[in-house]
Write a structure and sequence with these properties.
This protein has eleven helices and ten strands. With 304 residues, the protein is α/β, with parallel strands linked by helices. The protein starts with a helix and ends in a 13-residue tail after the last helix.
Length: 304
């Protein structure tokens, strides 16, 4: 008999790569994780891990079991959901994570959903997708509001149920005075830029887009806070590429030059496959989607 808790640790190791990362995600000690994986090897009668320097990697048997294990975890999630009646009232705790610029938009929906369902408690945390999506798969969150940039690889569709919340156009924004009458491709390489930190999908896309225009942006300011990046633009300290959701209304009288890139980021809600029909998760998720209706009523919000 395979212990599900140990199988979950193996699946985590296949995703995160190191015993230390698994231990941190599961709130265990590294030695505790190693011990449980050793017990799993005894249960299945096969070597699952191979020592490589100071770390480990999965053997072929370990990779096969981790793949099957992820499918088993989805099946267990589905079974737990199906045990509840679709007519059940939302109750218990629903843990939601959202990236910075989405938290403000979601707050009214979160508060309204709690008011409508007295037995429901919603925990809302600000977390960037790079952290929140792995935490969703680990079970730390029930819903993650994430963002995807053009060309970015999507998370595994086998493990994640995805619905589109919003297609948010991306714009280059800069004070007209900073351009001094020149076109952006002519002076873009000479301007200071304010972008999200290196490694962020938004940063990688922005740099590649600028290179497509003929220059490489000289990044002087970095922040996850898009409102701060916009403030730097408004002060004439830098140019940036920002989603329309955080920009002022197009009719604003601010002295800003806005250039549509022709591309959009996609804002999505993610839940673990098998939880999408859970009455609590479904109620909260539907309210979060309603919160974006006024922003983008024509968006295709079908599950993928």
């Amino acid at each position: 008999m395979i212990e599900v808790r140990r199988l979950r640790l193996l699946v985590e190791l296949s995703r995160r790569g190191t015993i230390a990362a698994v231990a941190q995600a599961r709130h265990m000690s590294p030695s505790g994780v190693s011990h449980q994986l050793s017990l799993l090897e005894r249960e299945v009668g096969a070597e699952l891990l191979q020592r490589v320097g100071r770390g480990v990697r999965l053997t072929e048997a370990g990779r096969r079991l981790a793949l099957r294990g992820s499918q088993i975890l989805v099946a267990l999630e589905t079974a737990r959901t199906e045990a509840r009646s679709p007519e059940d009232q939302p109750s218990g705790t629903c843990r939601v994570a959202a990236f910075g610029s989405a938290v403000r938009a979601l707050l009214p929906a979160v508060l309204g959903c709690q008011d409508a369902h007295p037995r429901l408690r919603i925990e809302l945390a600000e977390s960037e997708p790079e952290v929140a999506v792995p935490a969703l798969l680990s079970g730390d969150f029930d819903i993650v509001v994430s963002e995807e940039y053009p060309g970015e690889a999507l998370p595994s569709r086998e493990e994640i149920h995805r619905r589109i919340l919003l297609r948010d156009p991306l714009e280059i924004v800069v004070r007209k005075s900073l351009l001094d009458g020149s076109d952006l491709p002519q002076v873009g390489g000479e301007l200071p830029w304010a972008l999200e930190p290196g490694g962020a999908a938004s940063r990688e896309w922005a740099v590649q887009h600028c290179r497509g225009l003929g220059f490489t942006p000289a990044v002087q300011y970095e922040s996850w806070d898009l409102e701060l990046l916009l403030l730097l633009v408004r002060r004439g300290a830098a140019a940036s590429i920002l989603p329309r959701m955080v920009l002022p209304a197009p009719r604003s009288k601010e002295d800003l030059r806005r250039l549509d890139t022709g591309r959009s980021r996609t804002v999505v809600s993610l839940v673990r496959r098998g939880r999408e029909l859970d009455p609590t998760v479904r109620a909260v998720r539907d309210d979060l989607h309603t919160a974006f209706e006024a922003v983008d009523p024509e968006a295709n919000r079908q599950a993928e």
